[in-house]
Amino acid sequence: MFNLPQALKRLVIGRAMRSEELGETLLPKRLALPIFASDPLSSVAYATGEILLVLTVGGTAFLYLTPWVAAGVIGLMAVVVMSYRQVVHAYPSGGGSYEVVSRNLGANSGLVVAASLLVDYVMTVAVSVASGVDNIISAFGSLAEHRVALAVGFVALLTAMNLRGVRESGRAFAAPTYLFIGGILLMVVTGLVRLAFGDNPQAPTAALGVAALDGKDSLQGLGLLMLGLRAFASGCTALTGVEAISNGVPAFRAPKSRNAAATMAVMGIVAVVMFAGVTLLALTSHVHYVEDACRLTGLAGDCHSYTQQTVIAQLAATVFGGSDTILFYFIQAVTALVLILAANTAFNGFPLLASILAQHRYLPRQMHTRGDRLAFSNGIIALAVVAGGLLWFYQADVTSLIHLYILGVFTSFTLSQIGMVRHWNRALATETDAAVRASARRSRLINGLGAVTTALVLVIVLITKFTQGAWLAVVAALLLWLTMRGIRRHYDTVAAELAVEDVAAESSRPRRVHAVVLVSKLHKPTLRALGYAEAFRPDTVEAVTVDVEPEATAELRAAWEGSGLDVPLRVLASPFREITKPVVAHVRELKADRPGDAVAVFIPEYVVGRWWENLLHNQSALWLKSRLLFTPGVMVISVPWQLTSANRADRPARRAPGAVRRGEP
Amino acid sequence: MFNLPQALKRLVIGRAMRSEELGETLLPKRLALPIFASDPLSSVAYATGEILLVLTVGGTAFLYLTPWVAAGVIGLMAVVVMSYRQVVHAYPSGGGSYEVVSRNLGANSGLVVAASLLVDYVMTVAVSVASGVDNIISAFGSLAEHRVALAVGFVALLTAMNLRGVRESGRAFAAPTYLFIGGILLMVVTGLVRLAFGDNPQAPTAALGVAALDGKDSLQGLGLLMLGLRAFASGCTALTGVEAISNGVPAFRAPKSRNAAATMAVMGIVAVVMFAGVTLLALTSHVHYVEDACRLTGLAGDCHSYTQQTVIAQLAATVFGGSDTILFYFIQAVTALVLILAANTAFNGFPLLASILAQHRYLPRQMHTRGDRLAFSNGIIALAVVAGGLLWFYQADVTSLIHLYILGVFTSFTLSQIGMVRHWNRALATETDAAVRASARRSRLINGLGAVTTALVLVIVLITKFTQGAWLAVVAALLLWLTMRGIRRHYDTVAAELAVEDVAAESSRPRRVHAVVLVSKLHKPTLRALGYAEAFRPDTVEAVTVDVEPEATAELRAAWEGSGLDVPLRVLASPFREITKPVVAHVRELKADRPGDAVAVFIPEYVVGRWWENLLHNQSALWLKSRLLFTPGVMVISVPWQLTSANRADRPARRAPGAVRRGEP
User: Fold this and answer.
1) B204-253, pLDDT tens digit by residue?
2) B577 and A641: CB-CB below 8 Å?
3) B359: which of A539, A544, B118, B148 is 20 to 30 A away, CA to CA?
4) Which domain holds residue A556?
5) Separation in Å, CA of B526 to nearest CA in chain A
6) Is residue A24 part of a domain?
């Protein structure tokens, strides 16, 4: 028979996969690049814009700083990529920064990294989706009013795609990423060629003036330095996601480490070329991009209804000759697509990290269990909910979201590079082979440079971004850190409480078992419960009812006496017309009179097939059961009575194992 | 030890009461009047205003209709009160209109009445509270912006008071109701005496003009008739709640019927005198009261920021010499208080009716169970939630809410009077005693008159109010009616399915019992579950684990083999890394191989004391259990392991019965 919810689930999630299929989902480099590198590559779409936003506070006076800021970002990118290539080789198990730091700097530091990364994965989804929607709106201005709905819709779409599993994601994402790389490079090359031939096309906003913020038009000394540093901190968004490959090494085909490191190098080079090219074009074509459109002078209409095009959109329109050309729409389409899909980096990384944390008992065990599609469904859903909430709260505004973003990235960069330095120190302490020692020394030098550089950037980001929203990311990471420590402490306490030292000594069997069968009416479920209770051959059996309504009780008593049942019926008084308390009190009394024995309470339960039927049945049974379990020496036995409607809900579990795999509904 | 939640519950709800105390909570007439009559009496506060609202559509031109409309309402009130006195005598069990109609016109008609009454109880709460807040704002204009918050706050307060139980409600409500009656009568008498001495004080709004609605200033013929009928329909709000006494007869002291009928007569006379007096004063003092303040001409300030005083407030200011006199504040205070408390009529009636309906299996059984304070907690809470929602949705606007109101009242009035006519017809068919026959004939005449009159009003209300919001009440009642029929059909089907004809023939005991103990680790809860399973002496015992993580499974297998346990451990393969499906499949296979036997699945469960700990434990156990219960012949045994924290949550149930009564926390 056709089962609509199941069919829908299969349609969205795809067929279930066996554990052995895990091998088949491993990624070749050409698929791994788009999956793991879509985040750092796509940040080309907003990093230049974020630098320009900061530098235009003094009108166009400080745009001359742009090349220096961009050079700083590119240098940093090179250092970080080189550093993480060391991580990939040294720790191929995919814990990434979390593993590096936990092993080398201790569990608490590792947990700091984990908390930062979890927050940053969420921010990656939010920022990438928001920027993607921005680029769609740059092409289709009339969609501006649906910004938030579009953003949340894309998060929902990504969630569904990721619940389908790793490999399919890789295929779905490969084409757009490669088209994006190709498109941006085509745009950069076209622009540079036109420039080389003396043709310097100007951006649509080049003719607009920019009003300086009060007193910001003549910064000098420290003020100028701060401005440059703020622009640099904003430009560092280009580095977000670089560490994703180091967290995803196990998803690569063998030789895993070498393939991952090679992919990382390719990604770094491509990212640098694209970022440099876009920034250069933005300067030569005089793109003017400000935080508040009302600071633009010379606008034709009302500034409040004016939607600024993104930097990429302005460049595409400039280089390809207008915002109605096919190539303009192509660039916007692939940019938007790659940004939306960049969020996928986080959808790959977050659940993997959450699962590792759950394995280490820092998160609830549910996070550790894989869903039936090899993806870690719970983690995916948690990520989608939080990111969607942020997009809704910040109205999908890229700049607001970016303030919350890069702090965590650089926290984990810095800690993991420090951890790597300690890693090489340890290796060098025992290693004797000269060639290996030389290699380790070189690696230590790279990671040392990485540690110093990223620590410096972390300080810059903290100083320039904290009051603009980064504090929220700090608070979120701190709360996560405390929660994870709390969960671990809880699991540790419980494990200690439950540990068995000597099985023989700690095993015990109750001397006798007393069965109590709860009865409300004399009907089939009651007879079944009585039959099951007697089948166990307990030492005593009694039926118990609670006298809530005297008439009903009298009726039951009469029916019982007329029935010929040999089990005695005990009526419990209930002065407060409650069911739970008298039963619990009676059971505790039984137990107290017979230490060393066990009391088994048989509760007839209705099994129904429709959710609302549960509202009409079993409410007292559920509550009663939860109270009875508090008494040591008492067990609760649910004796189900399947109502006809139960067949409706029973189908999924009734199918043979493997049916799902064969695509049966 | 001190238990804050329990202590708070006791503070708000009061101590629990025994069933035998029910007798003590029965009401003498002097307490029954304020409880059941606060609704019809308090409607004096808005009925006159609603008539004036309608009649001012043509400026002040049609105010001359007011006495005629008021006379119609008064006549109707007399007929309805007389009719319901017959109901109280004939049906003293408190089902009121529902019982009368069910018995005489059949179950489906009875259910129509029940649905109408449930909707009207909700509306009573909403309208009374909204009007009460209106009167508070008439005295303290600055509270106007907190209208909705005040209204919802009062609903919450009433809910808490009613959860404390019947008698205390009576005491809390007696003083305000009597003060309200006294205050209004004092105001009417003072006004009439001043009038008699030739002193005719004018209302604050008497000097303001009223602009007619377009084309409404010269109505004639049918238009004039419709206006009069609309005003009459609005004035009929004065009759809401008259039936409350007939639903509450069991709460009276013996002789119940006679006391209830006497109370009803007193209520009718008081209501008529107050309504007539207020309407008379409103006419002589020229109160101008309109739906939209911007239709008042001659206002000093902006009409949008002008808050109209209620009719009662204007009269109090007029008669007692200004809206800063002590008597003005006294009238406003008692009016507001009695209106808020009028909602209490519904808090008395709704849960009682819901409980009767639950007893007849038209509503879930939970509604039938009394809370631990003799009040029907579930019904009270349902009522409060819906009424609060309406107040929020309609921004606590009295007139909007009133459109939804009286339709249901007159549906049940009409049906119950028709039912009473049939009741007397039946009585007359068998009765031979001449005196009794004469009395029955007289009663039949009264109820016949009532039926005709209320049916006429029902038609008027339908015509004049349907498009203004009454349709919503019709839809709500219809949905309720369908839901209740559905619930009854469900319970009937289930009862038929479960009925036992021959206990001996239908009793059966499984031949053998096979125990399956679910194991994840070898720890204390596992050992306890094994011990309990063996204590039952089942025919076979096996331990079962699911191979989700191969390392964990290998570890468990090694520990098991080293432990010396004589129960075999079976490892179930789980290609999809799921726990539920392999276990369910295994249990079904066991069961299928052994028809006539029973399978007992022992699941170790953690009992924890903090709600969030449940998120960290038992998730798979819960899900597994719900799936296992679908298989006939399988029972599920929860073997609890009480973690240390469980003690926290165990206190309430651990106390001896009666402790609550002694006020122990």
Assistant:
1) 888 888 887 777 767 777 778 888 888 998 888 888 888 878 877 877 88
2) no
3) A544
4) 510-654
5) 9
6) no
